Amino acid sequence: MIRRRHLLAAGLAAPALPARAQAAWPTRPITFVNGFAPGSTIDIVARTMGREIEARLGQPLVIDSRPGASGNIAALAMLRAPADGYTIGLAPITLGTNPWLMNVGYDPQRDITLVARMTAVPVVIAVAASTGFRTLADLLAFARQSPERLTLGHGGVGASGFLAAHLFGRAAGFQPLMVPFSGTTPVYQAMLAGTVHGTFTPVDNVLPGQVAAGAMRVLAVMQETRIAMLPDVPTTRELGFGPEVDFRSWHGVMVRAGTPAPVITRLFEATVAAAANPAVQEALLRAGVEPAPSASMEEAQAFYLGEVARWGDLIRALGIRPQ
C-alpha cells in the first residue's frame, strides 16, 4: 500500500454532495480536465470522445487543459473540486506510474475512481532501417552478443517507451542503454541520424509514414493482436513471448472518489456508448488509437489498481525512487 499523501488533506476531506442533489445530473456544463498539451494524442482522444460523451449527457463537456508533471497537475485539479461529477478527468497510463515517480499528493488507491477505460494505444518496437535489423530476432541477437551497446531513445524516465523497453529487456535477457530525449520527435530524429538504434514507443500517425518511406522498421507490436495501422507487423505473442510483455498505453475517464454512484453509472454508460460509435472509432484509429472500453465499472477500477501495482513493481525493480 502506498503511503497516503497529505498535501491535499483539506481538499480531499470534503464530503461529497448528498445523492439526492445528484438526481438530475448533469444540469450544467461539466469540466473535463486534461493533463497534456493541445494537439497531443491524449488531447485528440479527449476532444474526440468528449464531443460524443457530451451529446449523450446533454450538457457541454468543457476541456480544461492543464499540462505538466505527466498529468499530475490535472489530477490534482480534479481532486480539489467537489466530488459531484461536474469536474472529471482524462485518465492516462501515467495515473498508474506517477505515484512511483513523484510525490503525487494523493493516495491512488483511495482518492481516484476510474469510471471507464476508453482507448488503448499499442506499443511497438521500432528501429532505424540503417541498423540492418530486419526482425526482432536480429535485434535480440545483437543485444545479447553486445551488452549495453543497443541504444534506445525514450521520452523520459517513467514514459511508456522507457517502461516498455525495460519490461521487454528483462523478459528477453538484455539490458539496453537508454538515451533520454525531450519527446518522441527528437527520438525519431536521432534514429534517422544514427545516434540511437531504435525505440519502444506508443504508435502514432508519424511512424507508418517513416516505415513506408523505408527510413524505419517496426519489428513487433507488444500485444496479443496485430494492429490495423501496421497489419504486417507481428506481435510479441506470435514471436514466442507471453502476456507478461504485453504493453498498451491507455486513456480513461476518472472522477474523485466519493462521487455518487448514479453519477458514475451515467458517466460510464455515456463513455462506453461513445467508444462504440463507428464514427468515433474511425477518428481514433486514424490517430493510432484503438477503442478499448471497459466491460464494467468494476472492471475499470480493478484494471486501474492493477496498473498501479504492475508499474510499481517494475519501477521499484529498476531502482527508481520518487523525486
TrEMBL record:
Residues 1-23 form the signal peptide. It comes from the Bacteria. Keywords: Receptor, Signal. The keyword Flavoprotein does not apply. CDD domains: PBP2_Bug_TTT (cd07012). Transmembrane segments: none annotated. Belongs to the UPF0065 (bug) family. PANTHER family: BLR1237 PROTEIN, TRICARBOXYLATE-BINDING PROTEIN. This is Tripartite-type tricarboxylate transporter, receptor component TctC.
